[in-house]
What we know:
CATH topology of the largest domain: Thrombin, subunit H
CATH class of the largest domain: Mainly Beta
Distance between the termini: 94 Å
Shape: globular
Family: Belongs to the peptidase S1 family.
Number of helices: 5
Keywords: Disulfide bond, Hydrolase, Protease, Serine protease, Signal, Zymogen
Structural class: alpha+beta
Strand order of the largest sheet: 13-14-15-18-17-16
Signal peptide: 1-35
Number of domains: 2
CATH architecture of the largest domain: Beta Barrel
Amino acid sequence: xxxxxxxxxxxARLIAVAAGALAAGALAxxxxxxxxxxxxxxxxxxxxxxxxERTGVAGIAWHTDAATGRVVVTADxxxxxxxxxxxxxxxGAVRIERTxxxxxxxxxxxxxxxxxxxxxxxxxxxxxxxxxxxxxxxHCGAVASTWYTNSSHATLIGSNVGYTFPGSDYALVRYSNTxxxxxxxxxxxDAYVGENVTRTGSTTGTHTGKVTALNATVRYSGSxxxxxxxxxxxxxxAEGGDSGGPxxxxxxxxxxxxxGSGNCTSGGTTxxxxxxxxxxxxxxxxx
Length: 287
């Protein structure tokens, strides 16, 4: 015969254990299933990207992450909570991440290639027929038309053939000083997510990092400001004056430094104009 009092105590213990497990979220009931994450179509993601663009919020960059099916928005430190709320309300397909510093074109007054009161960095040497040029950032071309090797403007390099900024961020400068050498050693290539890359600039020298996104759009704050599309997003640090410098992987020419946030002490997020798009736009060959 079963001891009734013992059975009641046993049942009470089972109920207590089950209740505790439910409170901790540790007990799965038979047939229960967690809600599946919302899946967005390519058309919905494109619409979400357009919606982010229409918010007009400055200090953000965004790209479509096909792996997670979300439009990833990276917001710099200048973006307010109210602006973030505006972005979130634009679409349910948006995921927001924060980064330190402020997104801006990396202009500065200082060393390397000098134009007016600014300095930038030479990107890749290029050629068309028997004429030699170099690529740099378009926002550099927007603020200076003639470039020199020193801040006193004593040694001429050459003048702009053309530039595009905003929208894209590239400029072409023709060598007019025949006494200057223009070595090569690169072949144009396309970056891929996860690639280990290197960047060189006149302010901070050489630094490395990884590609985190392709076809990113960034809306820069400050002057010159504006929205640039089709960029390579990376973890490589950069600072003012590094603009236009090369991004590469071995002898593969990948991009030109456009802008970003942070610095080479604390790190940051940096964007690059793909080198292939720049060379194609001007009809020149990276060598």
